[in-house]
Amino acid sequence: MARMARATRKRLGEILIDQGLIQEEHLLAALQEQKRTGELLGEVLIRLGYASEEDIASTIVIQFGLPYLPVKKYAIKDEMTKLFPPRLLRQYQFIPVDKMGRVLSVAAGTVLTPDILSELEQMSGSRIFVFVGKQSEIRELIETKFAAASKAGAAEEEAKQLSSLGSMLLGDQ
Question: Which of 3, 37, 45, 121 fits as disulfide partner to 51, beta carbons 3.0 to 4.6 Å?
Fold first, then answer.
């Protein structure tokens, strides 16, 4: 399971207030909006302009004792794009960034629950180590690198199938 160091029991909003990043009235307004929309608190705070992505990422680092990874500056190998379907990456807002032995490092823009981590470990056959990343960078990479690679892979597979079908029809096999 993912390793966490020095996590705190404080909630995201409490840490943001303690750090002087938001006011209590901002938290209360964001909590009301969260109830209405079902979004994550960090997403609401960013959307309402009460906190920046950097504020939320640094607070998650404090809250869960996870390391931060600036994913845009990290060179992600092509084989990482084939580990999980883009639909899953979008749903859980994470990307695989590296694999060393049986440990898969992922960067997440939101908190990955123990159930989600267990599912990812089962799918990948690896232990998951979580880094915190900016949501916008993770979303951008999902669309530009991971979804694009998935489409290219699907097109390549379809071309192979058509070529195989053509060979069978023409009696080349």
Answer: 45
Burial of residue 94 (CB within 10 Å: 0-12, 13-18, 19+) is buried
Predicted confidence (pLDDT) per residue in 79-134, tens digit: 999 899 999 999 999 999 999 999 999 999 888 889 999 999 999 999 999 999 99
The answer on 102 and 41 residing in a single domain is: no
Q: What average pLDDT does this structure show over 28-38? A: 95
Specify the long-range contacts of residues 89-92, CB closer than 8 Å, at least 24 apart. Answer: 89/142, 89/146, 90/139, 90/142, 92/116, 92/120
* Cβ-based neighbours of 130, under 8 Å, separated by 6 or more: 2, 4, 66, 94, 105, 106, 107, 108, 112, 117
Boundaries of domain holding 161: 71-170
* Separation CA 163–CA 115 (nearest Å): 42
Domain co-membership, 54 together with 87: no
